[in-house]
Amino acid sequence: MISYYADLAIGLILAFLLLSLLVSGINEGIVKLLGIRSKFLWAYLRDTLDGAETADGTSRLDRILDALKRLGRKARTPLTQAASPEEGRSRLPASVLGVFARLPFGRDPRPAFSRQPPPAQSPPLAAAADSVAADSVAAESVAADPVAAGSGAAEQATASAEVPAGASADPAHPAGQADPEEIAVLTVEPAAVGAAGGVLPPDQGKSMAELLHERLQEIDHAKRGRTSIADIPPARFAVAVMEIAIEHGGVEALMRDLDALKSPFSQPLKAVWDRASHDLEAFGRGVEDWFDGEMERLSLLYRRYVRWVLVGLGLIVTLAFGMDSLEYGKTLLRDNAYRGAVTAFGQSGPQALEPLREQCEPGQDPYVCVTDVLSTPAFVKIFTHAPVSVTMDAAEGPAWAWHGGDWWQRLTSPGHWPGFLITLIALLFGAPFWWDILRRLSGLRARTSGSTPS
């Protein structure tokens, strides 16, 4: 009797393990195909390093998702966390619909992929395109020089190419005849000393997130022309920030320009810098600890969204296979009892054959019936309730059969609903949980831990 219940437990655990692996595989395939994990990370990095993006909210995708979100639901959870035109909106989604609809099919927050190694000298820091900081830099440029802002791009470069106060230029020829060294000074320095506090427009440099990607692109590979990096080690992030700060003229200069960009990264950077007492080694460790904590928080947020997707996938898998856990448990016990009866038949002789005839079709050879049942254990039968089933024949090979009517009747039968619910709840524990339970129950862990290398 004890062996019967042990077989029942192992059979249920193994079924839940395989179905959980199927759910996890489908979810991982969707995430990989749409690049959701990488986009989720870079949406957070864009928000933290570059600041909020402009709150236009005029894309067709946003309007469709807002309409779908309002159908049948009174609570109006925004797809993004902010919607003020002055403050912008977050690139990081604030709902499951945003994670699996707006994030994969909307504006891609990931930097462009580059096959080049990290440059020896990075471009200057600039405002990110389509960000609130970029609009602020453009507005301040228009206020400072409306004539240059109203002209074309080529005329603007020529009109703004004036030497600032305190600089020197060669008066022997006009700006149009300047050599390359003078052109570099005339076109970069005016923007660097503008009202934006050393921050350039998007077309004259790279944003903080793009500068970070430059330091990581040696481990990158392309995915539709964008980066596929979905995990950044905290130590590498801290080193990249240190490298950017050194090229930018120091940590304080970087913090000043990040503050001009309205970057949320400037505040934790200042806190770490003050706590480190302006010591670069302690500052690097502080940035690493801060980023490690942020990644833990981001992982919790991501798992909270993915959990609801796993619920949906688990429900689909449960209904697709018609997995009634209660019925399956009864089948396991009945299968064990049937095998016990066959064993008794082998020991008692032909008189034990009569009880077995009741489970065989009329006119079927009992010996053939016993062979078929023993070759089709209860574990295999859990996959026979799907709309499409396959049987293996020694002579003709695999044969496919359609059982749509029986499958639908099974789903609409209230007697199976408690078993479906138990299966769905079991799948939410995940494959690692059921694998650990199976190892504990079968003793695999004890044998593995007790082995010694030869």
UniProtKB/TrEMBL annotation:
Residue segments, region Disordered: 108-131, 153-177
Annotated Low complexity bias: 153-165
Keywords annotated in UniProt: Membrane, Transmembrane, Transmembrane helix
Membrane-spanning parts: 6-27, 305-323, 417-435
Protein name (Swiss-Prot/TrEMBL): Uncharacterized protein
